[in-house]
Amino acid sequence: MAEEKKEEEKKEEVKKEVPKEEPEKKEKPKREELSKAEKKEKVEVPKKFKALVEEIEKMSVLDLSELVKVLEKKFGVSAAAYKAAAPAVSATGAEASAPAEEKSVFNIELKEVGPQKIQVIKLVRDITQKGLKDSKDLVDAVEKGPQVVKENVKKEEAEDMKKKFEAVGGKIELK
Known about the structure:
70% of the residues lie in helices and 11% in strands. It is mostly helical. The chain has a three-stranded antiparallel β-sheet with strand order 2-1-3, covered by helices on one side. The longest helix has 41 residues, at 2-42. The radius of gyration is 36 Å and the shape is elongated.
């Protein structure tokens, strides 16, 4: 009989403790559910993306991070590039007002090599101060499209280089 009384007392203690803990536990999830519900109300997902969003919601943070990196590589985009686009627009706006002045700095672009390829390679080597292989690769790449030989060259030097290329049969454009 003493054992039965002890068991009944334990059950009563457990009953007293359980109601105290349960309301606290129930309140916290309700607050979280409310905040989640509020967030869900603010963002409406179109039907065509609903399945995709549901799959993303199931993913862990590490998986999401990996997914973002893959998408950035696949499509060549990132958040930083988008922010950097705004200053680029203002720079082109500044260049648009500059054409009133005569250009004093040019980029030398090799368009055609001509019949004296070796002479053109030697000239490119002298101008760029690159090795023979790099100069040859640059001249060979002209077959695929125009190649920039040197950038930010003063007008007088650019005109001089143009004459030298024309003398060996190459065609360049000053940009």
